[in-house]
Task: inverse folding
């Protein structure tokens, strides 16, 4: 129980549990959750991302494991579509099976277990995670929606090229990848962030982990699973178990090991990210199922993530 892995995981579980208790007690109202989320995404997250990446040189980044991550994503995503059918419901489930909560849970978890080196690897993934995955998902959703509405009377649809460009723009002009890109560009200048700026960034970044994890717990307290439990559990098992297994198998087949691959496997084992709900809401498909899958996969992840971390720290990192 005194191993670094378990001592790093205990705060993650504890903060989520405290947030859940706070929500259940009504100390934070459901209407305030969105405001807390905005604080995390718009203030704390950019501070941590920029400060961490402002000392990283591009030539030191390792994009190999990131590429494997997207190959694993493609395999699980395509397999889901093949089983569910090429429709908006299949697209929603495919995205839920593959889109990880890399920010709210991934950042504090990887930071505690792997330190700054692990965060740099994770931020390398995060810098293109939403851009690639959400752009690909947008194309699939639009094609599936067009197929479902083919022959039906109604309004005109936006051209595909415009939809893709808009998705790419939204993936870049965003409070997550934008500070990563800005930090990397600043690092290449050779300058150092002044102490008067660096200190506030440090304090804001340190607040991200606890507040983000508390927010996860609060969100769980207000999420109702109900009759969607079975469908949500199927998604949770694919997301938290199958996805990291596929990624680990690819890494093993290619003879890879080390910290970057370990971080990618852990990232693949993370629960379903909240962005999936935005897609289900936009296309009005499986909204309750996706909401339930976020909650169920988070609860399941508290069991599966420690197992994944123990395995990768012993056999991948060595």
Result:
């Amino acid at each position: 129980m005194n191993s670094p892995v378990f001592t790093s995981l205990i705060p993650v579980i504890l903060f989520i549990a405290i947030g859940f208790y706070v929500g259940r007690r009504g100390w934070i109202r459901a209407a305030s959750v969105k405001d807390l989320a905005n604080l995390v995404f718009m203030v704390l997250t950019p501070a941590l991302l920029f400060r961490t990446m402002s000392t990283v040189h591009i030539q030191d980044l390792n994009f190999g494991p990131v590429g494997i991550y997207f190959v694993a994503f493609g395999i699980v995503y395509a397999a889901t579509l093949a089983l569910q059918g090429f429709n908006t419901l299949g697209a929603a489930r495919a995205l839920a099976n593959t889109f990880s909560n890399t920010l709210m849970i991934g950042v504090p978890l990887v930071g505690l277990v792997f330190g700054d080196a692990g965060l740099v690897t994770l931020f390398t993934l995060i810098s293109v995670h939403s851009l690639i995955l959400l752009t690909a998902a947008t194309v699939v959703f639009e094609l599936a929606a067009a197929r479902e509405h083919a022959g039906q009377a109604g309004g005109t649809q936006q051209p595909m090229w415009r939809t893709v460009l808009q998705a790419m723009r939204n993936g870049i002009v965003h409070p997550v990848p934008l500070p990563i890109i800005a930090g990397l560009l600043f690092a290449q200048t050779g300058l150092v962030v002044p102490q008067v700026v660096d200190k506030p960034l440090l304090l804001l970044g340190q607040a991200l982990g606890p507040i983000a994890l508390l927010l996860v717990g609060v969100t769980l307290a207000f999420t109702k699973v109900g009759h969607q439990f079975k469908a949500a559990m199927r998604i949770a098992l694919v997301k938290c178990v199958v996805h990291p297994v596929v990624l680990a198998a690819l890494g093993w087949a290619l003879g890879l090991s080390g910290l970057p691959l370990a971080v990618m496997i852990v990232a693949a084992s993370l629960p379903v990210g909240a962005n999936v709900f935005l897609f289900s809401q936009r296309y009005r498909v499986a909204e309750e199922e996706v909401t339930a899958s976020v909650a169920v996969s988070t609860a399941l992840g508290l069991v599966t993530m420690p197992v994944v971390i123990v395995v990768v720290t012993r056999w991948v990192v060595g």
Observations:
- The CA atoms of residues 9 and 230 lie 27 Å apart.
- The first helix runs from residue 4 to 25.
